[in-house]
Structures are given as C-alpha cells and as structure tokens.
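User: Is it possible to get a 3D structure for a protein together with its bound compound? The compound here is copper (II) ion. I've pasted both below.
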Amino acid sequence: MDSHDRRKFLKQGAAVTAGMLAAGAGSAMAQEPGEPRPASADGLSLQPPRETSPPGDTSGELPEEFQAFSRTQPSYGGPVGEETYLGKLVPGLRDAGAAPVPFEAPDLDKIPWKMVNGRKEYHIYCEHVRRELLPNHWMDFFGYNGSMPGPTIEAHQGDKVRFVVHNRLPEPTTIHWHGLELPNEMDGVPFVTQDPIMPGKTFIYEFDLHQAGTFFYHAHFPMQEAFGMAGFFIIHPAVAWDPPVDRDFGLMFQNFRIEWAQTVPDSMAMDFNWHTINGRSGPYTTPLVCKLGERVRIRILNFSPQQHHPIHFHGHTFWITGHEGARIPADAWIPRNNELIGVAQASDLEFIAFNPGDWVLHCHMVHHMMNHMVRQVGPRIRKDIDVGAYKASIENRPRVDFVHDDQGFAVPGYPQKMQGMEMSHEAMQKLNSRREVRGMRKMWHMGVHGLMTVVRVLPDDLYDQVMNSDEKMEPGYVFNELVARRKNQRQEQQE
Ligand SMILES: [Cu+2]
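Assistant: Yes, that's possible. Here is the predicted structure of the complex:
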C-alpha cells in the first residue's frame, strides 16, 4: 500500500469509527479521559483525522509527505505556508482518529466526578488552603478542594455537568465558569445572576457543554480571585484536534504580594513578589517531561491579578493554536517563541519536541524570574548578616549602611536579593527527590526561579530511565549523555 492509499484507507477507517461512535452517543457518557468518546450531537468536531503513523507502527518515522521536517533534530521544514513549515501540521506519534490525550497540569489534581441522573457530578469545596510555594514556604490562600489554584475540571464536548458547590469559607462566594456559553442563572455573578452562596451553604450549577477548549472557573469576588480561587476547566473535543498531540499540559501563572513576615497575600497590592505556576514557584514547579519527537500542547493560563506575562520557550518554535475563546483554525496559527498572555487570557502552544535537552519555559519579565524579592530593608545590604539573624532581632537590627567597602556594594541597595532562598538540606531533598528532575545538572535549581519551569525533551531510552526506572542516576547524567551523543553524531558525520 503506498502512502496515498494508506492515507485514504485510514481516513475511511476513521469515518467508520466516527459513525460507530455517533451511534452510541445516546448512551450514558461515563468514559474516562483518554478513552474513545461519543461524537457531540451536532457532529461538529468530527473532521476526518490526519494520518499519523500506520496502526501499530511505533518507529516514529514520519509519513512521506512530512519528511521535509525532522522530528528528532532542529529543522525548518517548509517552504513557508507548507504543512511541514516549522513543523506546523506535523503529526505526533499517536494513531489517527485517537481520542484526546488526558490533560496534565503538574502539581495539580483533577476533580473526580460520577454520573448522577444523567450528568457528570463534581463536588467543589471552597475553603482556606495552605500551599507550599517553595519547599518549607507555606502560605495561606483561599482555594478549592484543598488546592490553590483549584484542581482541574476535565470534561468533554457534549457532556452534561453538575457542580455541587459547598462554601466552607468564612464569607459568601460564587463560582463563575469563565468563557462558557451557559444559561444566565448559571453564570455565577453575585447579585446579578444569583444570591451569594453563604458560609456553610451549598449551591448547584447545571449546564451542558457544547464548546471545546481551554476554559477556567473562578470565584466572582475580586478579592477571592486575588487569594487564588481559580482552576482550569478543560473541555476536550470528541475527537482529538488535528493533528493529535501526544501530551496536553497546562500551566497556570499567578502573582501574589506576601510581605516578608506574612503568610497571607495582600489583595490590595499592585506590586508582586511571589510568582507561581500551578501553585508553586520555580524551582519547585514540576518540569514537563516528554519524549523526543512527540507533538506537545501546553495550555498557558494567566490568572494574575494585574500583570501580563510574555512567555518564552527555548530551543523550539511553537505555534499558537488556541486562545481562551476557542481553537484557532490552522490558517490563522502564528509561529512564536514568545507569547504575550494578558490577564485572564489563555494561549495554547503546540510544537514538535524535536530538540533533546532541558529547555526552560518562562515569563520574560525580570521581576517574574525572581521570587520573594525585598527592597532596601533587611540584610541584603549588610555584610555577614543573614535573614534569620535579622528577623530574630528586629529591634536591634543593624543600622542601614548604604555604602560598603566591597566593590560589589558600591551602589546603595545593590544587589537586591531573593529573601529566604537559601535552601536547607531538607528543602533540597524535596526539590531533587522528584522523578521529573532526575539526571538534570546538579545546580539546575539556581537558574529556575519564580515564573520559570523546564520542559525536558528526552529520547526514548533516557525517558524510560528517568520516568520508569528506579536505578540511581547521578546529577547531570541526562545532560552529559545528550552532549556526548551530539558529539559522537558530529564525529560520525565528519568521518
Ligand atoms: Cu510575568
């Protein structure tokens, strides 16, 4: 069977499958994420899926028409406008017609659901939450189900949903379903569309999901939003968008002002010193790990109170394939390496992970690449006095001396410092005992602060060693191995 025939065959196969799925659409929808889904009633999402690899082929080789682009090393593809240009429509490793891959937001759970009277029923608890932003730095927030930000709601286009919202806060609240086209009385705006849910009370939201995309839910009391009351609401299409991705990650960016001796955010502040991705600050945000050659989607949501984030990704060019409103038609996708995401906006990035290594993904605002910053107070302009000693005796704190003998201190107040970033042995254990950071360079955490995280692109064997094996791995093993392999490759090419 030549390539053209194979493609046709696969398209026909997909159409048959879609028909079968549509026939089952009336039955109870109790599938787990990742299982085949029935079509939505209007059938809108059933475009014929693109061919990826022949069924059962795990070689990772691209179909002929995509071979202008390499999945395993930097390449341009092209020319401009072609499907292969910068890997734009190059498929990943999953089969055609696949169900959407489950969404994964590192460091965040998903809200479980069960079918009750024909609806997916989720229980949401609005409550005080303590969150460890960095190892041993516990802060107080408002959140959902023990988490700040809240755990993810994952659903599918066509689902009928019910949210039972329990208010365990000391004050009234509501939940707004951001971006959803739903009945007015379900919109969650206090006084305008419903009475506030009083402390100790429960409210039930019910509606049907006809959309698909990256949405979110949040309290509709501004101060509660500033305290962290928000979460992802991911609605998958019935059949994976074309071309299907192998990974579907989510990162929520937030800013808080927390004074140095406080654990509660100042919701009035306009100047922020704690920066979190999925409720943790770099380097505690867990890296995204994927396999070389996969097609990867990262959905980035900016839920900061005031500030926009220019999100930069190293070593790859990505395509903007969706915003918080909906999926963007492929003709309008834009290639970028830095995407500015405004407050309450989301961007979906897609790329082929063709470049092996540990690549940072971060907000490019310098204040957001630091954390827990302090100004001209405290010990950072005082030689030999650490933060602990300063805090221990506020009354006897040393006099501010704006001029030091050292050359580095010649400028008053310079350098500023990330307060409390000295990591204890225990904190280092928490950082480095995570599977996802195995084999990274020994001091990697010194280069990842605030709104920074790492995307690890690993060849199959290294991926297995990092993610699936418990054998001991020295710091730097993966990085060194990749450098050595590139060197060998270059030598082989020269010979
Ligand atoms: Cu930023």
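The CA atoms of residues 241 and 278 lie 25 Å apart. The chain is about 15% helix and 25% strand.
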